[in-house]
Amino acid sequence: MSSAAVSDRQLRLVIVASTLGTIIEWYDFYIFGSLATILSAHFFPKENPVAAFLETVAIFTIGFLIRPLGAFVFGRIGDLIGRKYTFLVTLTGMGLSTALIGVVPSYAQIGIAAPIILFLLRIIQGLTLGGEYGGAITYVAEHAPDERRGYWTGWLQTSPSAGLLVSLAVVIGTRLGLGDEAFTAWGWRIPFLVSFILVAISFYIRMKLHETPIFQDLRRRGATTRNPWRESFTGPNLKPVLIATVIILGQGVVWYSSQFWALFFLQTVKGLDVLTSSTIVGIALVLAVPFFVVFARLSDLVGRKPIMLLGMGLAAATYYPLYSALGRAAQPGQVDYVTSVAIVWALVMYVAMVYGPTAAFLAEFFPSRIRYTSVSVPYHIGNGWGGGLVPFVTSAIWASTKNLGLTLLYPILVPAVACLLGLFIMPQTHRVSLWQEVSAGEATAGQATD
Known about the structure:
CATH superfamily: MFS general substrate transporter like domains
Distance between the termini: 19 Å
Mean pLDDT: 87
Largest sheet: 2 strands, antiparallel
Radius of gyration: 21 Å
Structural class: mainly alpha
Order of helices and strands: HHHHHHHHHHHHHHHHHEEHHHHHHH
Strand content: under 5%
Shape: globular
């Protein structure tokens, strides 16, 4: 078997279905954060707005922290029964939990039950996303040709930023259509309810997909794992899992510090309204998202390592001056849109460098029989724990100190340390062939039969 067995038409369908579904999952996940200031007013007591906001951010952060557990659970299922049906389940769980947030009564209506229900739905979001993204990475990588795996998985890597962009677009469109008063009162529920429609479309498209040819070959030869947890986290595979976790911790912090915290910064530090802040970040994302594919394709030629580590190093070195400049450009009532967009675009370019090649790096780093589990767990520890703590840690430090340098300490130190360690422990993987692994398995099976 070789990658030539996958036609260009089939590969394009795989990319569209996987990326569209993952965009929707990230839309679901980030619509919560995009509306954090409004949710805090509806689901918590109004006596202390700062405390209410931090409690909302904490619930938002819980969705990140629970993601590795979802990776454990759904990664195991994906390695045992297959990639396709596992991420159909996660897509459905994410979509339903998001849509239900749009119908939960407010604190004024049902009291303490409101934030409890919100918390439980956020847990479901985190669990299902923990299973979704590792599956999507594995699914696309196990269809892509070896020499262009970075390019094809790079399209998938646009999905988190695209999901954030879609969430911002829906928020802006709904707010403009209804007006500020109606949107704040009840219109904020519409972006959550839209998830019903988006998930139905994505589910229909994904149902047209087949299992990956690499997993089909493993199953045909009886070579699938019996215990993906034991194989992934003991013996010789433990070291790659630990190395990947270190690298993805740096990548995850850059991701959230460069684009999602930019939105938090504009809203909570500078006090811009949701519409203005969303417009600045949204335009920057539109301009920067194509570079995820550019850097991913470049990693096919020069390797994943130099591009990812360079992005981490640049981010750590320039966060403070860039956010200082953004603070001067984005003053309430006198926003310099061109400068603000340019700064956020530069921040997102760091994300493109560290994130564009990540899917290919992870898929190439682990053997096929345990790839779903081994990719998912480091990914969601790094992004869920490392990156997911960024909104809460930075918001809490800013609320207590009002000092930008202290606030950015976590976003600067984590990628700096990951970059330094990565110079010594991160391997080059772009020459690894997933398809040769399958061919070797076929040869072994043929010898056994003879």
